[in-house]
Fold each of these.
Amino acid sequence: MALLEWRNEFSIGVAEVDYEHRELIKLINHLHQTLVEGTSDPQTAEFLGEIHSAIAAHFALEEKIMRESRYSAYPEHKEDHEALLDEIREIMDDFDSGAYAAGKSDLGATLTAWFGQHFQTHDAKLHRALG
Ligand SMILES: [Fe+2]
Ligand SMILES: [Fe+2]
């Protein structure tokens, strides 16, 4: 079963952002699968890097839209994006040092909880403002 399912209420109403949200959900579910199956470490490490860049690129797009529309809740929305990127970087470090395998952190669960929360709060608020 997929960890995170796309729901219509996640829609921001900006085609590019909605498309990226769907792609990110696919990536996260794929990553979860990779971790569950225990695919080789170099492959997982590479995939982690890919996920980090895909998420960073998505945040950059959303932040550009927010700046262009002079969105008032931009600072706190951006802050939430940065907190997640920091968290992913920490997990990547844990993975490199072998601490991840020891069960210190669960990336699949972290991302699912974060996105579920972020979509329904910050991104939904942005949707209402753009609408
Ligand atoms: Fe988003
Ligand atoms: Fe966002």
Amino acid sequence: MKPRVLFVYYTFTKQALRVTEDMESVFRDRGWDITRAQIELTDARYKDRFKQFPLQHRYLDIIRLLPAQLRRATGEIRIPRQAEVGDYDLVCIGSPTWWLTTCMPIRSYLKSGAAAQLLEGREVAAFVVCRRYWKNNLKTVKRLAEANGATSIGETHFSYLGGQVRSLLSLISYLGTGEYRDRYLGVKIPPTNLQPDGDDAARAFAVRLADHVEIVSTSRGG
Ligand SMILES: Cc1cc2nc3c(=O)[nH]c(=O)nc-3n(C[C@H](O)[C@H](O)[C@H](O)COP(=O)(O)O)c2cc1C
């Protein structure tokens, strides 16, 4: 039997997808069976704003999420069948940071009955993608997964170039244009999105996870 890994993630600008693809390449080379489940934000209050990239009203669209994120609110999502049932050896959860914490779609998934059913007794690994703020997000994903009866076997995060101000200006510029620009509001800005060495780091993380699961399975005689 091939070992099985599920990637469950939400992605808007495709950074969590990029990490997923890099990690998948490692599992694929090692002969694992790979399943993907992308969570969709279907909540009527937000879905139209987030159905297209770049954002039409970047400041407004981001700020509109602030109250819900501060309340740690959940919202309506669509959960693919693959993230409801399945006998996986490992579940990798990809969570972008929104307003300093776990984005609503991933929080909603982790608090759903589907996640409670799927994650019970499973090994999970979490990765956060963000501009800068990963700690709270990662801690939340781990806590919610463990509350569903999962065991966390690894965690990591990926963040952007630039200091506090320039990385923020660069992200805002990108969210509104979908392009990498040199300047925003007259300030020189670094490229946004995951750092160039993120791909290697994602693959190295996947190697550690695959090693762990394979070694444990061999020692159990599986
Ligand atoms: C609504 C919104 C709020 C965000 N808030 C934060 C934040 O508080 N801290 C941070 O480091 N990044 C923040 N970001 C940046 C995202 O975490 C980052 O762009 C992430 O890589 C997006 O992943 P995705 O492309 O897979 O959706 C925010 C992005 C959006 C769209």
